[in-house]
Specification:
With 268 residues, the protein is an alpha+beta fold. The protein is 16% helix and 36% strand. The chain has two domains: 3-164 and 251-267, no CATH class; 168-248, SH3 type barrels, CATH 2.30.30. The chain has helices at residues 136-145, 149-154, 166-184, 234-241; strands spanning 9-13, 16-19, 25-33, 48-59, 65-80, 84-86, 94-99, 102-107, 109-112, 120-123, 127-130, 190-192, 202-209, 214-219, 224-228, 255-256.
Length: 268
């Protein structure tokens, strides 16, 4: 079913519904990891782009869960509803669609409905996020289906792109440092252990247990330590070894072809 032909509420089954926003288009947000070729994707139909912290939930067999984060880049596309089709498969917070004939998944909020409706409803917002992709081909498909920024403006589409806060900017740079450090860490490298981890301070790596995310190291007194990766100050470790973080550490420039970018001046 084309979104352009759907109403405000689509019932795929008696107990599964999808609420759709009004208007002729939806702003689709595609996020990619910062240190991938997809982060450098360019196209005249991209409405906006900005640095973004990406958070991932991991479910354990025991029923528990934990979260990890990555530095990323978010691309915004204004896609007309005539180019978006519901597949008809219940997604329960992950709504499967096609955009220009290509498969994507909307990552949305959902919940149970109050009477007279029953069951679950997924709410698709006017600005909807897709599940994270690192494929340039998928970004190209979105761009091909999207309106030109001038067309979006002519249809009254407006867009606010939030910049990272001061705290988010620091976390973003630390995540870039962690990626660089993990890739280059080896025997003989110098490390800086974060405060609060047994007072190790600086040490020299003597062994790597990458699968266990641990290393062994010798401190300045000659004492040996077993240290988990999470205990390292990656920014300081990169600096100790002269490992360049590259241009991404300065954050990708945020830009918006529809409206001014929402800036956090303290983060500059």
């Amino acid at each position: 079913m084309l979104l352009a032909e759907a109403g405000s509420l689509v019932s795929l089954t008696p107990t599964y519904h999808i609420a759709l926003p009004p208007g002729e288009a939806i702003i689709l947000v595609a996020c990619v990891a910062a240190r991938t070729p997809a982060a450098r994707f360019t196209h005249p139909r991209i409405a906006a782009a900005t640095a973004r912290l990406l958070h991932f939930r991991h479910d354990l067999p025991t029923g528990g869960k934990y979260w990890t984060s990555q530095a990323g880049v978010a691309f915004y596309f204004v896609v007309p509803k005539t180019a978006i089709t519901l597949t008809g498969v219940p997604g329960y917070s992950y709504v499967p669609v096609t955009v220009g004939g290509h498969p994507f998944t909307l990552n949305v909020s959902g919940g149970t409905l109050a009477p007279p409706l029953t069951g679950w409803c997924d709410w698709v917002a006017p600005t909807a996020h897709l599940t994270v992709t690192n494929r340039i081909g998928e970004l190209r498909w979105l761009a091909q289906a999207a309106w030109e920024p001038a067309t979006a403006q002519a249809h009254g589409i407006r867009l606010t792109v939030p910049a990272l806060t001061v705290a988010e900017t620091a976390q973003y740079r630390a995540l870039i440092a962690a990626q660089v450090g993990r890739a280059r860490l080896g025997v003989g490298a110098r490390i800086q252990v974060a405060p609060g981890w047994d007072g190790v301070g600086q040490a020299t790596v003597t062994g790597i247990q990458a699968r266990r995310q641990r290393l062994t190291a010798q401190d300045t007194t000659g004492y040996g330590w077993a240290i988990p990766y999470r205990a390292l100050d990656w920014s300081a470790t990169c600096a100790l070894n002269g490992w360049e973080l590259g241009p991404l550490a300065a954050l990708p420039a945020a830009w918006n072809r529809l409206d001014p970018v929402t800036e956090d001046s303290a983060a500059e």
